[in-house]
Every structure is written in C-alpha cells, then in structure tokens.
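As a representative case, the lines below give one protein's residues and fold tokens.
***
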Amino acid sequence: MAYCFITIPSLMDIFARLKLYLLVGQTALSNQAVGQADGLLRAAIHLLAEVPKTIVVETKNVSAEQYIVEYINHLLSVILFVPDHPDHSVLYLVRGLMNVLEEIIWDDSSDAKCRLYLNAICILSAAAQESYIFKVEKVESNDKLYGAGSKFVEEVNKIINVLIIEILKKINEAGEKNKKLQYFICAASLNRIVAHGDLSSISMCKLAQNLWLLAIKNTNVDQNFMKRLRKTIEFRALRDFSGYPELLQLITDIR
C-alpha cells in the first residue's frame, strides 16, 4: 500500500491516478488497513479539484462531467465505510469532498452538481443509521464508533441542511432561465425525500409539498413519473408510515 501511495503521484494521466487511488484505497480497506485507506481517499479527493473541464475521446474534446459524476458516486459509496480519523472532525472526508465540489466549475445548464449533492444526502442518511446494512469485514465503521449517537446525527444533519440549501438555490436560479433543469432537480429532490426523508418533520413535509407544487406546474413535467411517485406516497400512507398521510393530503389539496 505504501509503495502505491508513493508511486501513484508520478503518473502523468490524472484519471489513472484517480482510479488507482480509489482502487488501492478499497483494497486497503478490505484488508483492514484503515489508515492507508484514509490517506489514499484523501489524496483522491484533493486530486479531483485538478481534473480538467474537458477530456479527449477519440480525438474529440468532450466534457469530463460525466466521468467526474460517476467517480464521485463511487467514491461516496466507499467513504461510507471508512471510520472517522481520531485527529479530524466528524465526517471530514465527506466535508472535504463537498468542498471540492464547490471548487469544480460546472456547466450552468447541468444538474450534475445537484445530483451529487442528492447522492451525498443519501449516503449521509445511511451514515446516520445505528447499524449499516453492508459492512467491510473486521472494519469498525462509523456505525460502530458513534452508534447513531445524537451528537453524530446532529453533525450529519448540519451537512445535509447545507446541501439542501445549495440545491434550493439552484432550483431558484434555474427557474429564471431553465425550466427544464428546474423540473429535473425538483423531481430528483422530491424522489429522494420520499425515499429517505423523515416526513414526520413538519419542515420536511412542507419542503416536499413545495417541490411537488413546483414540479407539477412546470411545463416540462413528466406526468408518468409524478404518477408513480404519488402511488409510492399513497402506498406508504395506507400503511401509516409516519408523515406520509399528511404529505398525501397536502399534495391532494394542490390545484
């Protein structure tokens, strides 16, 4: 692991370096070398800020955005299992990655950044659980370190709140010049709230209602998607999932 950590920076291709940092980081984690995994993933996060906006594919310059999105999604799924370093703040790898997302220059007409924020929210939702569904053998992840303790969950919620604010800003900006983008972000956000949100919270339920209103009144609305989402809400409301009957009533009252 140490040899890889030393030699990877000598490679010229930035994408090869990113792939190797992640691959070797995963290998280190699966072999219970948590410290090495932490260092390799940190290096990957810092390197992301240097990725060029375009890459050459078959002699043509194309946007690197899709590659970045796929890579960060993969990185997020690995970070979930890496326990916090005792010398750093809670969830410092996630915080560092979110800071890098701010440094990357994104296309104004793209929803990529918001999609990554939403995926990060899903990972954070998983991180706050008392016990993770999946585990890395012999590695004590944050579920073992914190056990969904109130202080840890509070820190998770702080990060999620910041991400939600950024997403809402993008929705507001897009509404003035790109209705299609606004709909995509609204629909994706609403989908995640229905799947992962605590709808027993009045503020969360109200947010879902407002997103629903924006989505259905948008000229680019996908009616089939909204119908499927409504059926999911109805299904959970009938089974009296906390907050879903109230949300169903709120969206039913919208005209």
